[in-house]
């Protein structure tokens, strides 16, 4: 039997020695989400004055501001790029310290195969097992693609990383690794569910009306999808399944209440399928070494043809705003990037192609601006610079606290009528006037 322990020791080094391989002009990939390196990032930041134009790429910054950004906030030495923005990333972008890279999430692995250079990869992983394998933790996503493309692979071991069973492409062997460092073993970031509003709860109730026994659930990020999960856990529905990109605490609620069994799934039966997880320690403990959970790379979880193989896929996602044509913005505030395209369009498409499937875009009817003025999230048209996350041709259900509207198979005037009917009552007359001016309102329209 191979002595993987000796191979491990031969590759074990200090963070400072490991990052010495990085050269000016290199592309360095930090792994995604909770797999972002900590001690390697700190060691690389110490080399600021001897390096220039080092481009670093990650996905959704966790564990606080990266050290390379702290020491170089104006990106003179390190240019920090991101496939998806969280709350911290948008703040860093506002100060010119983080740059967004648009991505259709199901395609990101192919980006690495066709378009992306990786000189050095830093990945936070689980400790090596007796077979010489490091589990990549709760962010399979595109981690394997990073490793496959990298010229040099450096692992940072975290004893607290949950061991996420697959699926496939959830491990890397010691023979494929150039260097190993043993990290600070930080606990994983805790992401409690946002506190839902009364409007969130009302929207969730409308969604619940559309879900049947045997449905396969995908929940997006945010308070409202989490409320749907909680309500599902408390419902009398039977044999729900799970196929999602992001695993959150609500799935634990559904599983422990007995409503989520996966018995009716056509593929990955009895398995909770996901590509990354973010939540509380309760979720991380649930995932750790649990064969019920199956982590896959994102080109499996978000592949529309794979999604559609399960019946009754229910895709439940938030949005920032929607216009009267049915175009959905889920990622920007004007030209300011606040989130990312992610996999919303992947699941909207996959759910619609699923037998009996449905996709839901959920948003409150309005919000308050800084002055306290109510602003409608249903707009005549998206403003200049606003990004379209889901085109009007893809959107099926739109839900606010005032009801449900179906976009599929509707003409422009029917779409306008349906959306105005679920807008906040205070905004409806203004929206009708705008629809008339835009030529998408018939005089016979009724709300």
Automatic annotation (TrEMBL):
Residues 8-191 form the Acetyl-CoA hydrolase/transferase N-terminal domain. Its main location: cytoplasm. Transmembrane segments: none annotated. It catalyses: butanoate + acetyl-CoA = butanoyl-CoA + acetate. Pathway: Lipid metabolism; butanoate metabolism. Gene3D superfamilies: 4-hydroxybutyrate coenzyme like domains (3.30.750.70), Acetyl-CoA hydrolase/transferase C-terminal domain (3.40.1080.20), Glutaconate Coenzyme A-transferase (3.40.1080.10). Keywords: Cytoplasm, Fatty acid metabolism, Hydrolase, Lipid metabolism, Transferase. Belongs to the acetyl-CoA hydrolase/transferase family. Coenzyme A-transferase that converts butyrate to butyryl-CoA. HAMAP family: But_CoA_trans (MF_03228). This is Probable butyrate:acetyl-CoA coenzyme A-transferase. It comes from Desulforamulus reducens (strain ATCC BAA-1160 / DSM 100696 / MI-1) (Desulfotomaculum reducens).
